[in-house]
Amino acid sequence: MTNQNLSRDEAAARSAILRVESYEVSLDLRSAEDQDQAGFLSKTVITFSCSEPGSTVFADFIHGGVHSVLLNGRPLDPAEVVDGSRILLPALEAQNQAIISGTALYSSSGEGLHRFVDPADGKTYLYTQHEPADARRVFANFEQPDLKASFTFHIAAPDGWTVASNAAVASTEPMASTPGHSVRRFHPTQRISTYITTVLAGPYHAAADSWHRPLPDGGGLQVPLGAYCRASLAESFDPDQIFAVTKAGLDFFHDLFDYPYPFGKYEQAFVPEYNLGAMENPGLVTFTEAYVFSSRATDAQYQARANTILHEMAHMWFGDLVTMKWWDDLWLKESFADYMGAHASAEATQWSKAWVTFANRRKGWAYVQDQLPTTHPIVADIRDLEAAKQNFDGITYAKGASVLKQLVAYAGFDSFIGASRRYFREHAYGNTSLADFLTALSAASGRDMEHWAHQWLQTAGISTMALDLRHDGGAIASATVVQDAVDPLTDEPVHRPHRLRLGFYNPDPSGRLLRTDQLELDVAGPRTDLPELAGRDQPALLLLNDDDLTYAKVVFDQRSLRTVLSSLDRLSDPLARALCWSSLWNMTRDGLLPAAVYVEAVQRFAPAETENSVLPVVLDCAKTAMDRYAPAAGRPALQEAFVAAARRQMEAAEPGSDQQLTWARSLAAVARAAESQAPFLRDLVLGNVVLDGLAVDTDLRWRFWQALAATGHATVAELDAALEGDRTVAARAGHLAALTARPVPEVKAEAWRTAVHTDSLSNQLLDATIDGFCQGPPDLLSGYVDPYFAELVAIWSSKSIEMAARLVRGLYPGGQDLAAGQAPAEHPVVVRTEAWLDENPAAPAALRRIVIEQRDHLVRALRAQQVVTPAECHS
Fold this sequence. Notes:
Elements: H1 8-17, E1 18-28, E2 39-50, E3 57-60, E4 66-71, E5 74-76, H2 78-81, E6 82-83, E7 86-89, E8 95-105, E9 112-117, E10 124-129, E11 150-158, E12 162-165, E13 169-174, E14 181-186, E15 199-202, E16 205-214, E17 220-229, H3 239-257, E18 266-271, E19 278-279, E20 284-288, H4 299-315, E21 323-324, H5 331-348, H6 354-370, H7 385-390, H8 395-411, H9 413-427, E22 431-432, H10 434-445, H11 450-457, E23 464-472, E24 475-484, E25 486-487, E26 492-493, E27 498-507, E28 513-523, E29 527-529, E30 541-544, E31 553-555, H12 558-567, H13 574-589, H14 595-605, H15 615-629, H16 635-652, H17 658-670, H18 678-686, H19 698-710, H20 716-724, H21 729-741, H22 745-757, H23 763-773, H24 778-781, H25 785-798, H26 801-810, H27 828-839, H28 845-865
Parallel strand pairs: 1-11, 17-18, 18-20, 21-22, 23-31
Antiparallel strand pairs: 1-2, 2-8, 3-7, 4-5, 4-8, 6-7, 9-10, 10-15, 11-14, 12-15, 13-14, 16-17, 19-20, 23-24, 24-29, 25-26, 27-28, 27-30
């Protein structure tokens, strides 16, 4: 189908002359349980005005057939006005009504109206996911964020189903024509954008509660709360805990923003095969059902769920109440929500150390994304919808949130919140851009924020900071903060202003590393002298960016690096430890520290890590270091030593503790490439060995089976037998990943065929197939390098962008090793990638972006493999 990639210029031209008043959307879902029915009837009534009568515009609809188009009472011939996913509306009047009827298609990719059949009980579930532009897969509309309108939904569905949307149900009308079915008619919504409309339908399990707050006028705000999950997950559902976080968040944001929750009810649905962590649909937020913990979960997982709940709640103001005009300013919602998720977690929930998790996990995502050749400013140049789809990335989310944290340090929290309150009042139910928020921020802070915004929001790349120290005997003679930052898009230096802290850490009599002093600094330009350090003894550890106020990579001075590599477990402050872990990992990725040194540090210090939100990140980094960054010759020894250490830590951990489970998961992950523990894993998964406190439940069982399958220690019969007793969604995906992980050429060939050449897999099962396919020795997959590049254009043109992106990213042959004497740029896969990029200059920009990013990940890994001796950290 053509014309799906709406450009920014087209959207601007349309919004320049249109104002949409309302949508009335009717969806007929009566046949949803019939899997032979590919689509459903969709009818949209759009009421809108046009400031230039006589103009022609188009509505958006990705469909399975348009049945009728009626414009201002005048029927239009679909054969003449339907152009792919665009429906032309000619000769507009000042006031218009368009009625468009057609067949919309059920989805298995998580885009539009996703249909899922529960393998546990055969029940059918539906939910929508529309961001950034998939409402047009469900009903005809003007699909862009700045054409807000009020939406009224009418949904025909079975009587026994739960049916929900953004607003509350106004009435339920039985259908005489179809006994056992009824139409749920919903109240109109506030003015919102198309991408945050939502529909939920199916035999969902439901829980209810409410939240109440008094208002200054003497009245009260009563918000009904709801929570939904699949019926087969009801026993694992914990709505009371979900409601507790929800109420804490509503209390917190109600007071912080000084603007009452604006969307009536607040419901949350946990849905299967979800592409995202969650989506901020006002009145009905949708989440991945991975947050319904049917297997044993760690405190870090509960913390992550709470953070996501609060992130999405912040969107009710940042994004839903006030929405960016176009996707260039996606940061106006995602950066703010990411910041507020961590802030509210730390201030309003039991997870007071949420900023530790942010420093170690979220910022790590940003650091990786910001060093790719496809990096971009936080305020990005988004020319079309395909580019928008790609920009839900670590820069827009985590870097943006990090920069907001720096903004708070720079301008003050009161100024930041004052600006936010003014922003909500002035732009409620409207659309904004960077200039609108800067106006509010300048007014609240009393200073011109234009220069700060340019340096931080409108330039790309990451700053690297280090201390240049000179000594006089044992004392510091001089100290300078050196800032190295170049915008990779312009090659121009960018010396951002940083408000940060420098921490001094020394051992106490018991050997613990404690902060003994701290200086607050303003760093600007390439070099900032620190005369206050002259004459002082150098501490064991000088930690730049102590308390993690700014966004920058920090390189240790030599003494501090020695201290970290010898005594990281003695550092008492969890945030300081997280920052040290982060710096060690950045140095490993940058080739300043050999992978083996990082892995040794993890084996030595991770057992003492008390923050369970940090431990899995560190263990995952160690696996990447071994699999990708370590030289091939030394890799097996590293992996076998690590998998043995993971087993020891799992066995030594307190029974039933988060540490025990986290080490068990790490053991399973590393054992995919290290088979010495295969007999032990078989005994665990078959119940021949039982560890006190370790529940080998669905999640852990299939992690173990995947490790066994990847090393050739599991048969098809064993995997099938394991599935027989576990008909859950997680088991189905785990079983498929294990089947395709087997190191057998015919298995890989069938997995490739199914993933690339059919549409039989849902999004979740495609991920499982890709995961399994990519396991195994490099020579097993070497024959798929040329087919990968030969299929790229066909994959992108024949599949939805969601499914195509998964295939292009997941199947890239990036697990390569550097031959002796070979430069990374000379590696055959790097050369082949460059050739494809040269041969396909006109390929879609989003496709080229993924390929460029995967090439860069490979080159970085190959460079890291060259670092075989400890590198000094220059001071």
